[in-house]
Write a structure and sequence with these properties.
Layout: H1 15-18, H2 46-51, E1 57-63, H3 65-68, E2 75-76, E3 83-84, H4 88-95, E4 99-103, H5 112-115, E5 118-121, E6 126-128, E7 139-145, H6 153-163, H7 166-195, E8 200-204, H8 223-247, E9 250-252, H9 254-257, H10 286-300
Helix pairs in contact: 4-10, 6-7, 7-8
Length: 301
């Protein structure tokens, strides 16, 4: 896989999960929006659940930390993958009893992690098998939420969100990095399709972290960086939608659904730069995972 040197800021793997959690990250204060996970409905919407009543068979969930949802209670360490048992794959399986879930989502995963072993925790020298091992000809449903860790893009953006200089540092390389991600994701979806030709494959996009205007104590960006980052997430989503189309998969547009739920909103779906009791830093709250679960059930149907 081609790498873009200017964007490889932190080590691959669990670094994305930990980014923004150190002492250098700005503290959230009383002006920061309160977590909204507790206000989410306890299950996916009734209409989404009803639409999945006829679904049955093996369901494999592949993806990175935005699918693993580290910090969303309750956490399974999962050999270093730090996977929530309330992430959207588990919520889908709970809402659709006919599905048999194999959840191999893993924090820090890249598209390479689908076909190769992932080194999850360097200090413990832990590895997990290729995620595609969970997919077979008998698999009937697959979700894939991956690509953000390729070329170190998300790690780089998280770093500049807390330190500034996003557009100056990454503006020249962003387009080529997003194009690489798109090609990588297309290849990943094609690999899934090759292993499970009868499966309904759904690519799950990323949410919008950045407000459409303004900033807040949790995300004190200047206007140049805010506008740049907001557009980057739009560009990522559009390129992922194209990847899904190219590979014959369905696309769940989480970015569109998350408008008004950015980090600075009154009802954020994404945590700010400090890990708390409801989500890791810069990662989804339970409310986002429940919304994604409902959208995926509709896409499966």
């Amino acid at each position: 896989m081609r790498r873009t040197p200017a964007l490889v800021v932190l080590a691959a793997g669990a670094a994305l999960v930990l980014a923004g959690c150190g002492d250098s990250a700005p503290d959230q204060d009383a002006k920061a929006p309160a977590p909204s996970g507790a206000s989410a409905p306890s299950t996916p919407s009734t209409s989404a659940t009803a639409s999945g009543q006829e679904m049955s068979g093996a369901y494999a969930a592949l993806g990175d930390s935005y699918s693993a949802a580290p910090g969303v209670p309750t956490i399974d360490f999962a050999a270093g993958c730090v996977r929530s048992t309330t992430n959207y794959p588990h919520l889908i399986a709970a809402a659709v009893p006919g599905l048999t879930l194999s959840d191999v989502t893993c924090s820090g995963a890249t598209t390479d992690s689908l076909s190769g072993s992932q080194h999850t925790a360097a200090a413990l020298d832990l590895h997990v098998p290729p995620q595609l091992d969970a997919v077979s000809a008998a698999t009937r449903y697959v979700t894939v939420g991956i690509g953000g860790n390729d070329v170190g893009l998300f790690n780089g953006l998280v770093t500049c969100m807390t330190n500034g200089g996003c557009k100056a540092t990454y503006g020249a390389d962003a387009d080529s990095a997003i194009e690489t991600i798109g090609k990588d994701v297309t290849g990943a979806l094609e690999a899934v399709r090759a292993k499970a030709p009868q499966a309904r494959v759904v690519l799950v996009g990323y949410p919008q972290l950045i407000p459409a205007s303004g900033s807040c104590a949790a995300l004190p960006l200047d206007e140049t960086d805010r506008a740049f980052l907001h557009q980057v997430f739009i560009d990522i989503s559009q390129r992922m939608a194209l990847a899904a189309s190219q590979a014959g998969a369905r696309f769940v547009d989480v970015l569109d659904a998350s408008q008004g739920h950015d980090i600075c909103s009154s009802e954020p779906w994404i945590n700010g730069p400090q890990t708390n009791g409801e989500a890791f830093a810069f990662h989804p709250y339970e409310a986002e995972q429940r919304a994604v679960a409902a959208m995926v059930i509709k896409a499966f149907s």
